[in-house]
Amino acid sequence: MTDTREASEKVVRDFLGSWQGRSLETICSAFADDAVYHNVPVEPIEGIAGIRSIFQSFLDAFCDAKLDIVTLAAEPGRVLVERVDYFTMNDGRKVVLPVAGVFEVNNGKITRFSDYFDLADFERQSGMKL
To answer: Which residues belong to any copy of the Limonene-1,2-epoxide hydrolase domain (predicted)?
Structure first.
């Protein structure tokens, strides 16, 4: 499979949009088995099992999510996304988090996903510790 700019962008847009459906299977289907997910303020998570686990904990903590793309730039195999993530926690608290994400795509799957954001701001708003 050729990872064109358009194909790489579609993988990332589909992944970001999939959070509203709240299906762990759909969300994780975007990733290669050996992918790395790195919330840059904390240690990276290597492999799909760890990624599934952290994504499940997110889904368990909030009842709604919308990952809103502000700016997206793509080239074959790499997508940069400026976003604002909106979460509604199960207790009703709202989280509004500016994020910059870097995605590497290979053979139609995300192989590396790095998110850059203010960890203290996220933890203060969400009550979660990453």
So the answer is: 9-122
- pLDDT value of residue 49: 98
Q: What is the DSSP string of 101-130?
A: EEEEEETTEEEEEEEE--HHHHHHHH----
- pLDDT value of position 84: 98
Count other C-beta atoms under 10 Å from residue 103's C-beta. Answer: 24
For 31, the token pair is: 């990733």
5-126, what's its fold? Answer: Nuclear Transport Factor 2; Chain: A, (3.10.450)
For tokens 């599934």, the residue is 52
